[in-house]
Amino acid sequence: MTTENKLELLWEFGAKLHTIHNTKELIALSADTISTLLNSDRSSVFLYSSESNELWTIHADGIDEEIRVPAAKSVVGHAAITEEIQIVVDAYNDFRFHHHTDKATGYQTKNILAAPLYNAQSEVFGVVEVINKNEALFTTDDIKVLTLLGKFISYLLENRLYNEKMECLVN
């Protein structure tokens, strides 16, 4: 994908944001955009609870059910706990990889890029994960793109979740 195509995709993504009022649709659009920009098979967005020390999906490409993983035994968990980008070159030979989801779905994860999502108080509240870069491994440019989009998604998601919480209190 050329730089011009990537910029056009980002422009289209930004334009669509004003038309989407459903949080799940917003996250699905964000994950799809990330997968396309990073030339990857799938993307997922997880929320993180430091109290229960686990993460669960609010969106996972190709999977309808919620995925729950322990923070101490997963790549996304390591991203949340360490507050650092995680890169996995060979999933099945990496101690951080939680293979149970692959077993349950029949999918085969090869490589992973995961980045923490921060709230306005600079606390980790989620992780965005990108799986299986097509025909290559994740690069430093991919990290930069995911970091930028992660900040954007964090802002949008935190605002949407807050607004939904306020609507529940009012109704």
Can you describe this structure?
- This protein has five helices and six strands, in the order ααβββαβαββα.
- The longest helix has 31 residues.
- By secondary structure, the chain is an alpha+beta fold.
- The radius of gyration is 16 Å and the shape is globular.
- A six-stranded antiparallel beta sheet has the order 3-2-1-6-5-4, sandwiched between helices.
- Helices cover 44% and strands 23% of the residues.
Average pLDDT number: 90
Strand content: 15-25%
Order of helices and strands: HHEEEHEHEEH
Question: Main sheet?
Answer: 6 strands, antiparallel
Across the major sheet, the strand order is 3-2-1-6-5-4
Radius of gyration: 16 Å
Helix content bin: 40-55%
User: What is the number of beta strands?
Assistant: 6
- Briefly note the structural class of the backbone: alpha+beta
Query: Uncertain segments of ≥5 residues (pLDDT<50)?
Result: none
| Cα separation of the termini | 46 Å
- The 3D shape can be described as globular
Number of H- or I-type helical stretches: 5
